[in-house]
Specification:
The chain starts with about 20 loop residues before the first strand and ends with a strand. The longest helix is centred in the middle third of the chain and has 16 residues, at about 185-200. With about 350 residues, the chain is α+β, with helices and mostly antiparallel strands. It folds into 2 domains: about 5-155, Aminotransferase class 4, branched-chain amino acid transferase, N-terminal domain (D-amino Acid Aminotransferase, Chain A, domain 1), CATH 3.30.470; about 165-325, D-amino Acid Aminotransferase, Chain A, domain 2 (Alpha-Beta Barrel), CATH 3.20.10.10. The chain has helices spanning about 50-55, 80-90, 100-110, 185-200, 250-260, 270-275, 310-325; strands at about 25-30, 30-35, 35-40, 60, 65, 75, 125-135, 145-155, 165-170, 205-210, 220, 225-230, 235-240, 265, 280-285, 290-295, 300-305, 335-340. It contains 7 helices and 18 strands. Helix 2 crosses helix 3. The strands form 2 sheets. Strands 1, 2, 3, 4, 5, 6, 7, 8 and 18 form a 9-stranded antiparallel beta sheet that branches. Strands 9, 10, 11, 12, 13, 14, 15, 16 and 17 form a 9-stranded mixed beta sheet that branches. The protein binds pyridoxal-5'-phosphate and 2-OXO-4-methylpentanoic acid.
């Protein structure tokens, strides 16, 4: 059933699927991407032999539209999502969707559903979920030759706990292999994180923190966000790893941290080091910046900064990032695209 805009409680949206009036769809057939268009039907019809149902050719993206104070709408670095989507496609042996068409389609979906972009100051945003699946029939393990690309939109609130510290547990499982698909945004990585996250939630944790899959010695990332720490010396550090998603929020924060004099660096971070950070956080589109209150490992809880308060470095980074996203502050050139 279509979501009525008047039924939305902007301050209590959660992070759940809702069926909005319009989505964008384009199909790949006969070796090329066909012209796409906005459609109303939120369902997909698939053959039982469709590649996606058996061998998992799926990639996706996540980006947000922000209502500005003047009523216009901002997109945050959509060209970066378009580019990562093309890289994910390459890793999954899928035909890349043209990056300029990706950004154009995102804009079309936002404008078509624009009354669903939450009001300025509600703390909510319109989340865009572009994805692509292999649709042609296969039986042997092989790539499809037909694909569907879609973008749907959903108004959302905080994904983790917003700017309140959350508790994490170090997982004994891996979500992605060392030279596997961790750098691609593909459903398989999330499928392998489901059991660990169910167990983590059951035990009261917000999510898992995954270790590097080769040695289980270094911090990799959370199930749905990258990790950063602020060392005792005040340096912003974030893992360098072949098995993590190259987060657009992370890359943005590396720039903001540099400007704020935090001397940011991407390098391996041992778990012991992570426990001793002055502050730590999760960063991502859905997560924004969410402080880490504690990390539990082998039954021992390591509190980082505070379980109830957010540290000053995290707060400052959060404020600057969010101000740029909402257009309250000018960011580096090209980060924000404003649409009416
Ligand atoms: N890591 C994982 C596993 C994610 O799912 C996400 C979310 O997209 C991120 C990191 C953060 O990436 P980004 O900042 O581009 O949203
Ligand atoms: C995002 O931040 O866009 C993601 O895709 C993370 C997901 C776990 C909700």
């Amino acid at each position: 059933m279509k979501q009525k805009v008047e039924d939305l409680d902007w301050k209590n949206l959660g992070f759940v699927y809702r069926d909005l009036p319009y989505r964008y769809e384009a199909k790949y057939k006969d070796g090329e991407w066909q012209e796409g268009k906005l459609i109303e039907d939120s369902t997909l019809v698939l053959s039982e032999g469709a590649e996606i149902l058996h061998y998992g050719q799926e990639i996706f993206e996540g980006l947000k539209a922000y209502r500005r104070e003047d009523g216009k709408i901002n997109l945050f670095r959509p060209d970066e999502n378009a580019h990562r989507f093309a890289l994910s496609a390459e890793r999954l042996a899928m035909p890349p969707f043209p990056e300029d068409r990706f950004v154009e389609a995102v804009k079309q979906v936002v404008l078509a559903n624009k009354e669903y972009v939450p009001p300025y100051d509600s703390g909510a945003t319109l989340y865009l979920r572009p994805f692509m699946i292999g649709t042609s029939n296969v039986l042997g393990v092989q790539a499809a030759n037909e694909y569907t690309f879609r973008i749907f939109a959903v108004p959302v609130g905080a994904y983790i706990k917003g700017l309140n510290p959350a508790d994490y547990i170090v997982s004994e499982y891996d979500r992605a292999a060392y030279a596997g698909t961790g750098q691609a945004k593909t459903s398989g990585n999330y499928a392998s994180s489901l059991l660990p996250s169910v167990e983590a939630h059951k035990n009261g944790f917000a999510d898992c923190l995954y270790l590097d899959p080769r040695e289980h010695k270094y911090v990799d990332e959370f199930g749905g966000a990258n990790f950063y720490g602020i060392t005792q010396e005040g340096q912003f550090v974030t893992p360098k790893s072949k098995s993590i998603l190259i987060s657009i929020t992370k890359r943005s924060l590396l720039e903001l941290a540099k400007k704020q004099g935090l001397n940011p660096v991407e390098r391996q971070i041992t778990l012991e080091e992570a426990f001793n950070m002055k502050e730590a956080g999760a960063m991502g589109t859905a997560a924004v910046i969410s402080p880490v209150g504690s990390i539990t490992y082998e039954g021992k809880k390591h509190v980082i900064y505070s379980e109830t308060e957010t540290g000053p470095v995290t707060t400052k980074l959060y404020n600057e990032l969010v101000d740029i996203q909402y257009g309250k502050q000018e960011g580096p050139e090209g980060w924000v695209q404003t649409i009416d």
